[in-house]
């Protein structure tokens, strides 16, 4: 950035490495502050030596690394490879995230942060971490397997996602953000399509807390610069203090990208793309925020995007406000019914199994909600 934004841009450099022995006990347990992790699992040592077990196990399953059979590599998370594994005794599938222990301080802190958040998270819209281990320099997390991949995988196949399906997606992600922001006081800091996972039930869940930040209170702010730059809010890029609403900006960009089929910011010369990384950051900070085309989308959808993508964070709605506005302004079943009766939408669904999958799951969820209301 050639102007004031570039002058304020905060970029970190690798910290000096610390001997790994500093974080290992004589028995081979990895320790960092209140966190203890070894082959048996994870514990957080609370005040007055109170201990909290990490056994958030599914149906009391006893996890051991030797009981997990590797099927294939399914992706990469922050700092680690993710494998599909099958438990030899219960036959269920899990995602095993292996993180090579990095003694660089910033990376180590990210790993510890992810472990702590996974340890305490209890929300249907957050990917479950069933167990974690430390052995031979590798930290392993046994995670819930989301068998439809990430939102990034889906939009590569379908290009765009229609409003009714985005309504289903938005509500679930917002519920996850409400939990993180207001119950755990956590800023995710890396909301992007690849960190929103989908399963065959139509559930959308947030994952990857490697760069999350915990605030001491709901009024706290941060000023560090980590995460994926494309979806980073203007105040974070310019080095200003930020809070939970930086996640809302990221969510708005993700939803708009799903709707229009491309990243919302357009380079000055589309044929060449972005000349540099800094040109993109300059556009996010200096240009007017993108918006949903009014001639292609409903007023409600355009308003939702506008409420998320405001350059002034004070003008953005919170996750709670957005969830309330979506719930009160949108009759999901009505819009789904219109979509079902629309020949164009129905033909699209029939032609694309993923679109139909989203449509079917949304209909079922809407019907269940109406029956129980």
Automatic annotation (TrEMBL):
Binding site for ATP: 97
Domain of life: Eukaryota
PROSITE patterns per record: PROTEIN_KINASE_ATP (PS00107), PROTEIN_KINASE_DOM (PS50011), PROTEIN_KINASE_ST (PS00108)
GO molecular function: ATP binding; MAP kinase kinase activity; protein serine/threonine kinase activity
UniProt-listed SMART domains: S_TKc
Protein kinase domain location: 68-334
PANTHER family xref list: DUAL SPECIFICITY MITOGEN-ACTIVATED PROTEIN KINASE KINASE 5-RELATED, MITOGEN-ACTIVATED PROTEIN KINASE KINASE 2-LIKE
Key words, A-Z: ATP-binding, Kinase, Membrane, Nucleotide-binding, Serine/threonine-protein kinase, Transferase, Transmembrane, Transmembrane helix
Protein name per the record: mitogen-activated protein kinase kinase
InterPro entries cross-referenced by the UniProt entry: Kinase-like_dom_sf, Prot_kinase_dom, Protein_kinase_ATP_BS, Ser/Thr_kinase_AS
Coiled coil: none
Family label: Belongs to the protein kinase superfamily. STE Ser/Thr protein kinase family. MAP kinase kinase subfamily.
Record has Protease as a keyword: no
Biological source species: Rhynchospora pubera
GO BP field: response to other organism
Keyword Transferase recorded: yes
Segments traversing the membrane: 319-338, 344-368
EC number from the UniProt entry: 2.7.12.2
